[in-house]
Amino acid sequence: MLGDPRFRAALAAGPLFWLLLLAAGFSPARPEWALERPGLFLSLALLYPVAEEVLFRGLLQEALARRLPTVPRGPLSSANLATSAAFSALHFPGHPPLWAAGVFLPSLLFGYFKDRYGRLSAPITLHATYNSGYYLLLFQPP
């Protein structure tokens, strides 16, 4: 994975996005909250990404890949597009609408690397990396 320049670019996209958000005026969080509430941080940064990737990329995307026609859509499969739409839709109840809709683009990356490698290690790595930075830099726990 790390030898793949596309994967390295996808990893670098997370920190670049966080910096852009901070430059755009988003208020930084208190990163020390993760040390004060390690169980919550580990759930958000690691447990949720693993569970979501197993469910969405491991089960749903795999099932859709067997059922949907393989119509060329550039580097994105029909199964990835449908899975990413479902992934984004299921974020609406717990997130502001703009953030929930914004989950669609990283989801496409997760699905792309699932298709590219045929295993879940790449999407889990990306998802956990993206969540870790977001929750450390921009999230204020209740």
From TrEMBL:
InterPro entries named in the record: Rce1/LyrA-like_dom (IPR003675)
Ranges for domain CAAX prenyl protease 2/Lysostaphin resistance protein A-like: 40-132
GO MF annotation list: peptidase activity
Keywords: Hydrolase, Membrane, Protease, Transmembrane, Transmembrane helix
Pfam families: Rce1-like
Gene Ontology BP annotations: proteolysis
Transmembrane segments: 96-113
Database matches in PANTHER family: CAAX AMINO TERMINAL PROTEASE, CAAX AMINO TERMINAL PROTEASE FAMILY PROTEIN
Cross-referenced NCBIfam families: JDVT-CAAX
Protein's name in the database: JDVT-CTERM system glutamic-type intramembrane protease
